[in-house]
Specification:
heterodimer, A: mainly alpha, 72% helix, B: 2 domains, eleven-stranded mixed β-sheet, 45% helix, globular, ABC transporter permease (chain A)
Chain lengths: 301, 387
């Protein structure tokens, strides 16, 4: 009955007012919604406001200057190096993980059978341990006279490779940290591929490569792309890997932001950097999402 | 009418819910309001690592039944800016290095003086160099007592004496970091304010003065070279780990504060070094720090703030502060025999008690670099060129 009543367009002024009113449920949810809204917006507004404040001051909302941004885009400023390294690391992390995670995701869907659940848990389990603790664990593994070096010496070799405190090991740390964020969307993506289609293609004489290229990959693409996007966004903001494993051989952009907020005590500069990075990531995400027709890829149309 | 009354009742119900939600939301603030009125049972401390440890705070909590919160940060400007940014009514005590109380926090009215009569007697029991009126505890005009002193220590650099002898390190001094043969064999502690001081010293320049453009240029070149040659930059744990494993032979910026946990852990070959000579005032070779703990200019200061400052003067508590988790340091209260006798031989060895007096004598005291911001920007840019 209610549906029939709603299906009729509201006519009288009272009915229009009534239709515009929020439902009781929405009204009850208002306090929480407002709280969440403020919690989401307040830090962003603060950062944005600080980015226009006088450098090295706390004159937020009381001063307005573009000096912070002008400083960042000054050709003499080397901060672009940090930005380039962060984006480079993130791109490489995505590329490495796409290659590493795909076979595992395929295995979870089609090969591991009843072990798939246990294997998934093994990939999730490290997330319960603090990232820093896990990275310090890797330091003990790679360090001179550590697990790797010691074991190799014990086996009669001349010792382990000197990989610690290099950009390479930073990249390794990032790939290690963000593997689950690529793996699980990819696994879900591959789960979307109907078995029947693969079987039909095979019956029609398609080879493995052709099935992979024409059926599996396009149908799994939503999951793969979401995994890539998620990994990229997280990896651009990564700091711990470059600090702990990389020994700050590279200063990444989030570390530069941290320095501005701590030792430099230049909150306006840190905020301007944070705004630039956020705008870059947001623009990239929006462009990527606009190019992706999620509805079509998810088969809703 | 029936519809109206239904509307009213629905509205009044919603109003009631809104009021309830409002009360719920305001709950914590109402609590804050009552806490604002009476703060006899709460104390908030902004400090360096150590004072926030359970070993130090728990006995005070059980003695007073108070809620004591302590937040530890790893640089002075951040702590002071927390007060500047409006947290003056949150904190009761602030524990920072020596110059800030008299040179910055008192002039900016961020802290308030202590009652002299109550605290002066404690200085009589401290080590001789802290005798009343101790410079860094007093205001510039010498009239007010601004804080209490406790932990201190020399802070220049640390070497593995199995690789570089103490004698060589002390005699060569800061030039170790100018030696191309040592590139790739040293680390740099991530302690950027100290790194600014030390890079000036490595460049042969006194950090605690206004610098000429030529000196700044030399500082920049030195920063680029020293950062480029560093095997790693990291925190205290990373430095000690890299020294113990043999990844590095020495690290810039460090002293008793940073190396004592490794020494206490059975690595007496790692040692804080104070060079015999250097470009610092009076030809001194090292820099030392002394913490001063002051009462914040909180309009509603907890009465426990003064209680706590007295509590940490007691010999047993001072010993606990010296060996609080994370970092071990000498304390001014070691001048009191009752406090000194609590230190074991191993503990004295961990804090390099054998050479403490001479190392402090060879060091100038931590001070403010007038053009710190400019130097820090140059240093941060140099750090980016490592990659």
């Amino acid at each position: 009955m209610a549906d029939i009543a709603l299906a009729r367009a509201p006519e009288t002024a009272r009915e229009i007012r009534h239709a515009r009113r929020l439902s009781v449920g929405a009204k009850c949810a208002m306090p929480v919604a407002v709280l969440l809204g403020i919690g989401f917006l307040a830090p962003m507004v603060a950062i944005l406001a600080y980015s226009f404040a006088t450098p090295r001051s706390f004159d937020v909302f009381r001063s307005f200057t573009l000096e912070n941004f002008a400083g960042l885009f000054d050709p003499a400023n080397t901060v672009w190096l940090s930005f380039a390294w962060s984006v480079g690391f993130a791109l490489f992390t995505v590329a490495i993980l796409a290659v590493v995670a795909y076979p595992i995701a395929y295995g979870l869907n089609a090969v591991f059978g009843r072990w798939a659940g246990l294997i998934s848990v093994l990939f999730v389990f490290p997330l319960f341990v603090s990232e820093n603790v896990r990275l310090y664990g890797w330091v003990l593994f790679f360090i001179k006279n550590g697990v790797l070096d010691g074991t190799l010496r014990w086996l009669g070799f001349s010792g382990g490779p000197e990989v610690l405190y290099t950009p390479g090991v930073t990249l390794f740390g990032m790939a290690y940290t963000y593997l689950p964020f690529m793996l699980f969307p990819m696994t879900l993506g591959l789960a979307l591929v109907p078995r029947d289609l693969v079987d039909a293609a095979r019956d029609l004489g398609a080879g493995r490569l052709l099935i992979w290229r024409e059926i599996e990959l396009p149908l799994a693409m939503p999951g793969i792309l979401i995994g890539m996007l998620l990994t990229f966004v997280l990896a651009v903001g990564a700091t711990a890997e470059a600090k702990i494993l990389g020994g700050q051989s590279i200063i990444v952009i989030s570390h530069d932001i941290e320095i501005a907020f701590t030792y430099s005590q230049n909150w306006p500069l840190g905020s301007a950097l944070a705004v630039v990075v956020s705008v870059f990531i947001a623009a990239l995400t929006l462009v990527a999402l606009s190019k992706l027709d999620l509805d079509r890829m998810l088969g809703r149309r | 009418m029936a519809g109206n009354s239904a509307g009213i009742s629905r509205r009044s119900l919603l109003q009631g819910m809104a009021a309830g939600a409002g009360a719920l939301a305001a709950g914590p603030f109402l609590g804050a309001g009552s806490a604002w009125a009476a703060r006899e049972k709460e104390l908030n401390i902004l400090c360096w690592e150590g004072y926030n440890s359970a070993q130090v705070l728990d006995p005070f909590r059980s003695k007073t039944g108070a809620t004591v919160k302590a937040e530890s940060l790893t640089n002075d400007p951040t702590m002071i800016n927390r007060l500047r940014a409006g947290e003056i009514s949150t904190w009761d005590l602030i524990n920072v290095n020596n110059p800030w109380a008299r040179k910055v926090m008192l002039p900016e009215k961020l802290i308030k003086p202590l009652p002299k009569a109550e605290f002066e007697p404690f200085f009589a029991k401290m080590l001789p160099e802290f005798k009343w009126p101790y410079k860094w505890a007093m205001s510039e005009d010498g009239n007010d007592l601004l804080g209490m002193v406790q932990r201190f220590g020399p802070y220049s650099f640390v070497v593995n004496t199995d690789k570089i002898s103490r004698k060589t390190a002390e005699e060569t001094g800061w030039d170790l970091f100018n030696d191309p043969a040592l590139a790739g064999k040293y680390g740099i502690l991530e302690s950027d304010d100290w790194n600014v001081f030390n890079l000036f010293v490595v460049a042969g320049i006194d950090p605690f003065k206004v610098h000429t453009p030529e000196e700044m240029a030399k500082f920049g070149e030195t920063a680029k070279r020293v950062f480029k040659g560093a095997k790693l930059i990291g925190d205290i744990a990373s430095m000690n780990q890299a020294l113990i494993s043999g990844e590095i032979d020495l690290h810039l910026t460090g002293g008793t504060y940073s190396v004592s946990p490794a020494r206490a852990d059975g690595h007496p070959n790692l040692r804080a070094i104070t060079p015999l000579k250097g470009p610092l005032a009076g030809g001194k070779g090292g820099i030392s720090w002394i913490e001063v703990t002051s009462t914040v200019n909180n309009p509603n200061l907890s009465p426990l703030a003064l209680e706590f400052l007295k509590y940490v003067q007691a010999p047993d508590v001072a010993h606990t502060v010296a060996f609080a988790e994370g970092t071990f340091n000498p304390v001014a209260q070691m001048g009191n025999p009752d406090c000194f006798k609590l230190f074991t031989k191993e503990e004295l060895d961990a804090i390099q008690w054998d050479s403490l007096e001479e190392e402090m004598a060879r060091s100038v005291e931590y001070d403010i670099v007038p053009d710190y911001d400019k130097a820090l920007d140059i240093m941060n840019a140099a750090k980016r060129l490592r990659g």
